[in-house]
Amino acid sequence: MNEIIAFAVTVVIISSSGVMSPGPLFAANVTYGLRQGAKAGLKMAYGHTVVEFPLILLLGLGVISLDKFPEFRIIISIIGAN
Predict the structure, then answer these.
(1) Is residue 44 within 8 Å of 32, Cβ to Cβ?
(2) Would you place residue 82 in the very low, low, confident or very high pLDDT band (cuts 50, 70, 90)?
(3) What's the CA gap between 56 and 63, in Å, rounded?
């Protein structure tokens, strides 16, 4: 049980460092939040979920094991660069 708690704490710390780091995305979030009001955070969280959820599903299904094939890496690199 202690390992689970330690893992959860580590995830929260690492996630917080990425979320709270200043940068252009953070500035856009603050600006959008000030203009749109209280529901801006929910809209941004939804937008993030739309992008991240399919990636998590693919990871869970083992698609990431395709990483062994050089062609797959090239295709993902090209798609990710756009």
Answers:
(1) yes
(2) low
(3) 10
Is residue 16 within 8 Å of residue 23, measured between CB atoms?
no
Element containing residue 81 per DSSP (H, E): helix 70-81
Q: Which two tokens stand for residue 34?
A: 């000030």
CA distance 79 to 10: 31
Q: What is the pLDDT of residues 68-78, one digit of tens each?
A: 778 877 887 88
Is pTM beyond 0.85? Reply is: no
Q: Give me the half-sphere count of Cα atoms (radius 13 Å) on the Cβ side of residue 23.
A: 6
Residue 81 corresponds to which tokens in the numbers above?
Answer: 């660069």
DSSP string across 6-74: HHHHHHHHHHHHHHSS-SHHHHHHHHHHHHH-TTHHHHHHHHHHHHHHHHHHHHHHTGGGGGGSHHHHH
